[in-house]
Amino acid sequence: MGIFPDNFLWGGAVAANQCEGAFDEDGKGLSVQDVLPHGIRGERTAVPTEDNMKLKGIDFYHRYEEDIRLFAEMGFKVFRTSIAWSRIFPKGDESEPNEKGLEFYDRLFDECHKYGIEPLVTISHYETPLYLAEHYNGWANRKLIGFFENYVRVIFERYKGKVKYWLTFNEINSILHAPFMSGGITTPPAELSEQELYQAAHHELVASALAVKIGHEVMPGAEIGCMILSMPAYPLTPAPEDVLRAMEDEHKNYFFGDVHVRGEYPGYMKRYFKEHGIEIRFEPEDGEILKNTVDFVSFSYYMSCCAAADEDKQARGTGNLLGGVPNPTLKASEWGWQIDPKGLRYVLNQYWDRYQKPLFIVENGLGAVDELVEDENGNKTVEDDYRIEYLRSHLEQVKEAVKDGVELMGYTSWGCIDVVSASTAELKKRYGYVYVDRNDDGSGTLNRYKKKSFYWYRDVIKNNGETL
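Structure tokens predicted for 6-phospho-beta-glucosidase (468 residues):
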């Protein structure tokens, strides 16, 4: 027997807002991404602007058949993507859905099944309809729970025979760090109180649990998971103060998983709220709704960080969404993301020991500047040995975690084809096995070319990880 189970779900991941383009076609409304031309930390614009690469993406909306065929050639068992909420409900608060939006995902999921690929669908992947952000202040407003419920009922009924695996909110804990992109909250960060931020998180947690409840009613055979941005915090030194600081930093992320898996707020968070004057407003039904716990825990993993009690040492890593003190023992990518393969084994063990629920790695990859060259046969490709080494080193640690006894459902590397970066809105920050000929100035043919890593990953899947 090999290390990975025979039914292991190998594949890749993208998000609708980073690949589809066609931002104003077939009745689609605007999302928060359409006014973020420079990524997470950039200023948002009043209307979509031509310098926003996500408006066109990689034209997946029109080229999905070609791309799914490439994924099938690699041997994908699963393809993770998201449904753009504003394709289904252009403003977000309508009572009736946009049929053309629903039809697109019918075609997409049918195309996956043509090749035996299971769709893994994220319901909300940083794609809150812009109207809900501007008119309701996003998830800061409890009304979004009802709008989300309407949305999930529609897509569950529509795709119940086509989608078996679902995720509720992408990197749900990121709302604490990117409130507009993650939660559609328009209040300026400097004016946003922790009270408002954690109340918005509560609304998302209730909505997520409600989606699990509805999903199990509508699709008895479906599996529905949460999705967490994992970034383990190591103590910078062995000093007990640093160890406790690392524990406290990790609690802020564990909080979201704990509620999803255990169905109630953990004691350490209740203490934090009490000591910081935060009172979460629970409606009478919230406690019961939260008891609808997930079937599995999925997460992204790109990097780790350190934690220090001494505020003078709290220099934050420039590339890390969650901040954190840079680890002096690790190298970093071109964008400042620290590379820590062993951290993935650590995270897998931490989550498994804590939750005893099946785990799913749904994002992991290396963003890098790739150079398109010609091989000995005159074909265009990318000699991305650096990406192969990154992925191999991480997957070797995944194997170790499986040997440790971790129950792992699958692995979908991010983004299996070049997409527009969420953090920087750049196309030059490439992750894929497939190179897309498009540049940050909008030029390029949009032609697809197989990188060296394409063939490497194809072999990894074919041999179920035995060739690592």
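Residues 194-218 form the longest helix (25 residues).
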